[in-house]
């Protein structure tokens, strides 16, 4: 198609060149218009095909995205699964708080009890021990609740991962809201790392060792045991 | 210098249960004058009203963290000498070193036991 277009343009240039020094008649103008129209027709045909192909691709993409958004089940997540997981977590907090309070009340009662009457004191200890055992039963129920929350998280993870893969989001910069950015900055500035998993943090003995030695000028990395060991060489 | 059990102690934590645990452990050790605050700024206000012999603070609190409280205390000429123990779940080396540089007297990693708390208090007071 490009070759045809070039031929048309060459005809146009030739025609203009021949007529440069002559008066231009209506027939010449029509002739030029015809040649121009022919050359542009090729251009429009090319453009139509490209635009049509792109529009088809966009329509296909939108169709695929509709399918992926449907597969996300965002409405179901928002209405059912996430609120249910929130309720489970709330119940876990309440149960652990209740159990902790019960156990601490028992301990405080025993600490404050008069031990001069051995028999009465023994009976009180027995009674409070039973209450403590009962309070510890929260662990079984909270374990089951945590399993349900984990299931919800896995459900969300599967769908979000599939959606991210479909839209190719890993290629672009991750979206971070202003609030998230500020929270991340605060965590970094104030060293709010939170509790570490087993093997990630350092124990009390290592802390004590750090206090018994001069503080290093350069803050060391401390993500694993070997880096911690390096502090003491 | 022996630990003066009559000195007022300020426990700073945003978790009521932890305040209760530390309070009970301090009572077991023999302390009687124990106050508490839910974050760094509340603690700072209390410290400017009452002279405490010891501050035991969590790290991660809102709006003011224990780390910020420590730096505020050390920067305030009237409070700068107050013994300060950090009791926290922040167990990365960078946290311990940052607290040490900011002037903390000792550092306890949660979860901890009564013996650790007592030994750190004794260490701060040179017992």
From TrEMBL, chain A:
Q: Where is the composition biased (Polar residues)?
A: 221-233
Q: From what organism does this protein derive?
A: Rhodoplanes serenus
Q: One cellular component GO annotation, for this chain's record?
A: bacterial-type flagellum
**Signal peptide per UniProt:** none
What Gene Ontology terms for biological process does this UniProt record contain?
regulation of chemotaxis
Recall the GO molecular function terms of this protein's record: catalytic activity
What name goes with this protein?
Chemotaxis protein
Write down the superkingdom of origin: Bacteria
InterPro entries according to UniProt: Chemotax_Pase_CheZ
TrEMBL record, chain B:
Q: What name goes with this protein?
A: Response regulator
Residues where 4-aspartylphosphate is found: 58
Cross-referenced InterPro entries, in alphabetical order? Answer: Bact_response_regulator (IPR050595), CheY-like_superfamily (IPR011006), Sig_transdc_resp-reg_receiver (IPR001789)
- SUPFAM superfamilies, per the entry: CheY-like (SSF52172)
Q: What Pfam family is a match, any one?
A: Response_reg
| The entry's keywords | Phosphoprotein
Q: Which organism is it from?
A: Rhodoplanes serenus
* Top-level lineage group: Bacteria
Output the GO biological process annotations, alphabetical, semicolon-separated. phosphorelay signal transduction system
Q: Which PROSITE patterns match?
A: RESPONSE_REGULATORY
């Amino acid at each position: 198609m490009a070759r045809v277009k070039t031929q048309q343009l060459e005809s146009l240039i030739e025609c203009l060149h021949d007529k440069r020094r002559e008066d231009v008649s209506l027939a010449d103008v029509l002739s030029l218009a015809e040649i121009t129209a022919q050359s542009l027709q090729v251009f429009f045909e090319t453009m139509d095909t490209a635009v049509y192909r792109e529009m088809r691709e966009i329509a296909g993409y939108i169709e695929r995205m509709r399918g992926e958004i449907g597969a996300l089940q965002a409405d179901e997540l928002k209405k059912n699964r996430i609120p249910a997981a929130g309720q489970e977590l709330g119940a876990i907090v309440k149960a652990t708080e209740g159990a902790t309070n019960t156990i601490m009340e028992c301990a405080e009662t025993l600490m404050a009890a008069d031990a001069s009457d051995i028999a009465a004191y023994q009976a009180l200890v027995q009674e409070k021990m039973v209450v403590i055992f009962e309070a510890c039963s929260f662990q079984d129920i909270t374990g089951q609740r945590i399993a349900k929350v984990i299931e919800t998280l896995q459900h969300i993870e599967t769908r979000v991962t599939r959606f991210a893969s479909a839209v190719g989001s890993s290629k672009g910069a991750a979206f971070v809201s202003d609030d998230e950015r500020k929270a991340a900055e605060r965590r970094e500035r104030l060293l709010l790392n939170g509790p570490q998993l087993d093997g990630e943090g350092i124990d009390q003995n290592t802390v004590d060792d750090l206090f018994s030695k001069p503080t290093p000028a350069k803050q060391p990395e401390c993500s694993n045991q070997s880096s911690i060991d390096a502090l003491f060489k | 210098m022996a630990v003066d059990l009559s000195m007022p102690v300020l426990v700073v934590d945003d978790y009521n249960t932890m305040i209760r645990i530390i309070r009970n452990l301090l009572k077991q050790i023999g302390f009687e004058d124990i106050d508490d605050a839910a974050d760094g700024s509340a603690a700072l206000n209390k410290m400017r009203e009452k002279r405490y012999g010891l501050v035991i603070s969590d790290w991660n609190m809102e709006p003011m963290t224990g780390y910020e409280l420590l730096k505020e205390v050390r920067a305030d000429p009237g409070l700068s000498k107050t013994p300060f123990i950090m009791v926290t779940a922040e167990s990365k080396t960078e946290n311990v070193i940052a607290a040490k540089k900011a002037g903390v007297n000792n550092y306890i990693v949660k979860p901890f036991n009564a013996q650790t708390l007592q030994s750190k208090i004794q260490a701060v007071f040179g017992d």
